[in-house]
Amino acid sequence: MTRLWNDPADFADEMIAGFVAANERYVRRVTGGVVRSTVVPQGQVAVVVGGGSGHYPAFGGLVGQGLAHGAAMGNLFASPSTQQIHAVASAAERGGGVFFSYGNYAGDVLNFDAAQERLRADGIPCDTVAVTDDIFSASPAEKHKRRGIAGDLTVFRVAAAAAEAGYDLAGVTRVAGLANERTRSFGVAFTGCTLPGAEQPLFSVPDGRMAIGLGIHGEPGIDETGIPTADGLAELLVSRLLDEVPEGVDVSGARVVPILNGLGSLKYEEMFVVYRRIAELLGAAGVEIIDPHVGEYCTSFDMAGTSLTLFWPDAELEALWDTPVDTPAYRRGSVVAAAQADASADADLAAEAIPPSDEASRAIAATVAQAVETIAATVDAHVDELGRLDSIAGDGDHGIGMQRGSHAARDAAIAARDAGAGAQTVLARAADAWSDRAGGTSGALWGLILASLAGKLGDVGSPSSADVASGVAAGVQSVMTYGKAEVGDKTLVDALVPFSVELTHGIDSGASLAAAWATAADAATRAAASTADLLPRMGRARPHAEKSLGTPDPGAHSLALIATAVGAVLERN
Ligand code: ADP
Ligand code: MG
After folding, report:
1. Which of 81-85, 251-255, 524-528, 539-543 has the lowest mean pLDDT?
2. Confidence of residue 351 (pLDDT cuts 50, 70, 90)
């Protein structure tokens, strides 16, 4: 359990503030996370990492000379938003382009991909390698779907060393991809973790049992056994990882970097006992151990558990691995200290002015703000139910994520309306605030839906019903482009698509916006209910597909609730 916090809602923010205050030699706070506080040579590729908070030293603790140039730091266990990632990357960028790397989770992929698009649109080249080291999260045939855990470190380090050695963006991406191919991990857990202020652990492991393959966010384990001896655990970890060595590696005579990672509350002493046997077993298999690591590299709050990572470098990767690093949480060799950078040169993101609007659009803007207020109230009324649905096969944060997002959207919409903004600006501000504050996959997707709809409303004149329908259709397009889910994958797409189809159909056949919307919301409600019969193929719920049979998809359910509530607002206006 965690014992110390002020307002739990402020925990991540206050944690980052304290982390920066304690590490000014290394890092400087920027919008969305931290960047190095030291001078980076012009033209060097900037390695930007990131993810949810709660995994220290990942990700802020890994920023410094020889490692990351910046880290986007999301809320606890929630992906940083597109805006946060984009802001950190823009601050870290030094003319050599940006390289993104992070653990492969749906929310992170979505937000980093969207940030990558934005950087490219700004004229900054950007490439990505999402880390997929956790062998228990998908089969070898679906390696690209695997999660990233402690293996993040090898990919980040190789990429950063290459950047420092003067590799260009394509070169950094190539060696990082190779490092990811040659990194495999496997984890076990004895207890779950409890987020600050929570009364219950996020997930739990029965007393005296050990969960195999349990995800670092509590994605349920793949298997469960009694707790073995330290030697027994070493044997389990080593044998499973030797069963799946990367292509091109011949175990006998191979050189390997073992990383025994503590997940939060396992003692170093216990890990040393386990490592003693790991070293013996690797030696017996004919493997030559180089640069072993025993410690905490990617934690999961106060979770008790451990993972073993084996990194099988080739000669180029080993040379890159062997370079010095100096960061708040991770040091290797001795670096030549770089000078402190002058932070005053950073341009602050200035508050954007409200574009001009006319009276007709301001009248629509009032309805839009009302609709967003209603969305927030609807989420409040269902927050526990949404969390419960998401906890069955996902990570249980759908209620609080939707709450953070919709509240921020409501506040932004009201502020823009009160500042005299037109309909488009009010909804666009709400969209940005939602995806920035919500975290998680659904937050990014709701940001896209609202931003697409906003694009059709305009700040002058009144949009037609057909404009609204085409705005919703554009939202479907961008959700499917970024999220890559199809109908039938058990996501909010299953409710959004019939909603959009019915809305367009109703308006094309001459119904009023309110009437067509109500029919469409009914279609979404039926479709959301039928997702109970589907198996998830996307997102965090995918590795535990069968557990969710009989339960509707949380994102589809919340979308239907929101569509219905907004319908009532349209009816009144
Ligand atoms: P996270 O999955 O990051 O914890 P939430 O719990 O807030 O985010 O939202 C989960 C919901 O997000 C799922 O129920 C599903 O409807 C939706 N979702 C997840 N991945 C996708 C995707 N790739 N495309 C569309 N919707 C998705
Ligand atoms: Mg979730």
Report:
1. 539-543
2. low
Count the Cβ atoms, other than its own, within 10 Å of residue 14.
Answer: 13
Ligand 1 cavity residues, CB under 6 Å: 106-107, 390, 394-395, 397-398, 401, 440-442, 445, 479, 483-485, 491-493, 538-540, 553-556
Look at residue 331 and tell me if it is in a domain. Answer: no
Q: Is residue 336 part of a domain?
A: no
d(CA 2, CA 23): 23
- Which one, of 35, 111, 147, lies nearest residue 405 by Cα? 111
Of all protein residues, the one whose alpha carbon is nearest to atom 23 of ligand 1 is: 483
pLDDT at 322: 95
Closest-lying ligand 1 atom to the alpha carbon of residue 443: 7
Q: What's the whole-number mean pLDDT along residues 286-307?
A: 96
Asked whether residue 281 falls in the same domain as residue 422, the answer is no
Q: For the residues 476-481, what does the mean pLDDT come to? A: 95
C-beta pairs of 162-168 under 8 Å, 24+ apart in sequence? 162/45, 162/320, 163/44, 163/45, 163/46, 163/47, 163/69, 163/96, 163/99, 164/44, 164/65, 164/66, 164/323, 165/320, 165/323, 166/44, 167/45, 168/45, 168/96, 168/97
Q: Is residue 335 part of a domain?
A: no
Q: How far is the CA of 491 from the centre of ligand 1 (A)?
A: 6
Domain match, 316 and 363 both: no
Ligand 1 centroid distance, CA of 482 (Å): 12
Supply the range of the domain harboring residue 460.
359-572
What is the H or E stretch that residue 562 is in? helix 554-572
Cα pseudo-dihedral 216, 222, 224, 230, rounded to 10: -60
Catalytic residue among 55, 69, 86, 217: 217
Residue 6 buriedness (CB in 10 A; 0-12 / 13-18 / 19+)? exposed
Rounded to the nearest angstrom, the distance between the alpha carbon of 396 and the centre of ligand 2 is: 5
Mean pLDDT score across all residues of the chain: 94
246 with 301, same domain?
yes
Q: Which ligand is nearest to the CA of 394?
A: 2
217 is catalytic: yes
Cα(213) to centroid(ligand 1), Å: 21
Any idea which residue has 């997930």 for tokens? 203
Q: Is residue 559 part of a domain?
A: yes
Lookup result for tokens 């359910």: 557
Nearest bound ligand to the CA of residue 79: 1
Q: What's the structural domain count of the chain?
A: 2
Nearest CA to 181 out of 240, 241, 245 is that of 245
| pLDDT one-digit tens code per residue, 23-69 | 999 999 998 999 999 999 999 999 999 999 999 999 999 999 999 99
Both 289 and 399 in one domain: the answer is no
Closest atom of ligand 1 relative to the 395 alpha carbon? 4
Q: What is the 3-state secondary structure (H, E, C) of 339-404?
A: CECCHHHCCCCCCCCCCCCCHHHHHHHHHHHHHHHHHHHHHHHHHHHHHHHHHHHCCCCHHHHHHH
